[in-house]
Amino acid sequence: MKTVKNIVCFLVLVIVLSACKKDHQVLGADVQPEDDVLGASFTDATPLYLHTIAHKPTFSFPSEIKFLGSNQDPVFGRTDVGLYTNLNIPNAITNVSFGADANLVSAEIILVAPSLDFLGNYFTPLSYTVFPVQTALSTSSVYFTNNDSLYNKNAMLGSYTGTFTVIDGKLALRIPIDQNYAQSILNNTQYLVDNATFQSVYKGFYISCEGSSLNPVNAQGMISKFSMNDPLTGLYLYYQNGTPSAIKENKSFRFAFTGTGSVKLNTVKYQPVNGAVSSLYSQLTGDTVKGQQNLFLKGLAGTKLKLYMPTLKSYADSFKVAVNRAEIVLNVDPSFTSSNAQYFAPPYLALLAMDSLSRESFVLDQLSTVDAARYDGIYDNVNNRYVFNIARHVQAIFNGVKKNYGFYVVVADPSALYTVKRDNNAERVVIAGISHSTLKPKLNLSYVKFKKDK
pLDDT value at position 14? Predict the structure, then answer.
């Protein structure tokens, strides 16, 4: 029995000693050359240079939601947003007739605001004016936000000064329309045979609020969203057949602002000279140094940012680099945050690359579904910031595939499918500049160095 125990103990001892023996076929770090070790690095000290510039007029897309209003922003200055829309006979009705004895009672435009989603002060009365469109609006044409030449400025068809009302439970703007104009539609049925004939004569409206008297203290005005496809939105003719009488029931007909031939677009007139803070106005007039203090982003193609990282390529000058993450962080300056909820930060921003001709182009991280999910650009309302991960684009710069001409930051959907649309967000935000002690913009760069792979 004792012999068996000794044999077992001997076998255990052999196994333990064998397990502790070093396998010289495995390359360990102790024999790896010191200068060949992978170096994982992180830095947030890359110099960034940013300043605000004016955004050029942009395309106005014929989307369902359009803007209208005037706003005297105490930070950004004055903005007037106008609205073009043509008229459509609803449901492709042909040979519309109101009766030979139709007499107009009244007419009005109704625009439905789908929500209290506005920029500015809802309680400020605005002065709305309506003009006839003199050049037919085409679904095949491209229109820019500075196009104010399509209407007759000398033929006002309606006006209203006030705020919204409620119709059938919906918030709405109502503007009375000239009786003679409406009566001509009612009585000239030869133009109502079909939609194309109708639009060739009655080309639509341009609605403006530029005549509104505003100030940045207690009459800031507002820019509102309107649903052009809402079944309540349109031009209404109220009429009676026969001699008008108070005891007769009014009839009505609605010409829609939607349909197969519908066109609706915005104009934007941004005037920073009228009330913008000095830091913003100085940057827009060429003083790039003021961008060290604050940076100003405004929707509806108001302003955008230029961003430069001139030393970025130097990380890969001496050895190859693999980028793990490259995050550009832009922090909202809380000193400019609206305390009365009149001005909101944009729900997203887009960071775009600049080419050799200073044109916008997509960063590589926007071009695939996987990369786009990491690219981000969505407003972080917990940390009050925007973050962009452009690791693939920075890697391309390190590899010499892409040139580093700089970047733009714009108020736009970061999705590559929608970035071109700049007329669908009116929000604005102030970003802390590089002189801010704790909130300055930065690049969080994580990378691995391959020192032996030249």
Answer: 36
pLDDT of residue 9: 44
Give pLDDT, residue 452.
61
Residue the block writes with tokens 């695939």? 368
Predicted model pTM: 0.89
Q: Three-state SS string across the chain, please?
A: CHHHHHHHHHHHHHHHHHHHCCCCCCCCCCCCCHHHCCEEEEECCCCCEEEEEECCCCECCCCCEEEEEEEEECCCEEEEEEEEECCECHHHCCCCCCCCCEEEEEEEEEEEECCCCEEECCCCCEEEEEEEECCCCCCCCCCECCCCCCECCCCCCEEEEECCEEECCEEEEEEECCHHHHHHHHHCHHHCCCHHHHHHHCCCEEEECCCCCCECCCECEEEEEEECCCCCCEEEEEEEECCCCCCCCCEEEEEECCCCCCCEEEEEEEECCCCCCHHHHHHHCCCHHHHHCEEEEECCCCEEEEEECCCHHHHHCCCEEEEEEEEEEEEECHHHCCCCCCCCCCCECEEEEECCCCCEECCHHHCCHHHHHHHECECECCCCEEEEECHHHHHHHHCCCCCCCCEEEECCCCCCCCCCCCCCCCCEEEEECCCCCCCCCEEEEEEEEECCCC
Task: Tell me the average confidence (pLDDT) per consecutive run of 10 residues in the chain, 454 residues long.
Answer: 41 38 36 51 97 97 96 97 97 93 96 92 95 96 96 97 96 97 95 96 97 95 97 97 85 95 96 97 98 98 98 92 97 85 92 98 95 95 98 97 98 96 96 97 95 59
Nearest to 391 by CA among 363, 356, 361: 363
